[in-house]
Amino acid sequence: MIHELKLRKIGNSVGIVLPKEALSYLKVGDGDTLSVTEAPDGSVRLSPTTAEVTRQMNVAQDLMKRCRHTLRELAK
After folding, report:
1. Which of 7, 8, 30, 53 has the fewest C-beta atoms under 10 angstroms from its C-beta?
2. pTM exceeding 0.85
3. What are the extents of the domains in the chain?
């Protein structure tokens, strides 16, 4: 599936409108939440966000916040 999407002004922001085929492929609809992540090759990926993914991300962010000094030392 390849679609060229045009950026559009939406209020004070800029957004894209996803075609029906993309929404169907992602199994999402109006009001659902998508996560945008950077892939190793520099591209961007869209994926549906579930309650479990949100919970896991909150746990990971809390851990990184609490252990930032240790993680910084390990990264050296």
Report:
1. 30
2. no
3. 8-74
DSSP3 helix / strand / coil % (the chain, rounded to 5): 40, 20, 40
What is residue 50's predicted lDDT score, i.e. its pLDDT?
83
Coil, helix or strand at residue 33: coil
What are the tokens at 16? Answer: 């894209």
Joined tokens for residue 33: 């939440």
- Give the rounded distance of the alpha carbon of 34 from its chain centre: 6
pLDDT tens for residues 19-43? Answer: 999 999 999 999 999 989 899 999 9
Q: Label residue 31 left, alpha or beta by phi (over 0 means left) and psi (-120 to 50 means alpha).
A: left
pLDDT at 52: 87
CA distances from 5 to 2, 21, 39, 42 (A): 10, 13, 19, 18
Give dist(CA 27, CA 22) in Å, integer: 8
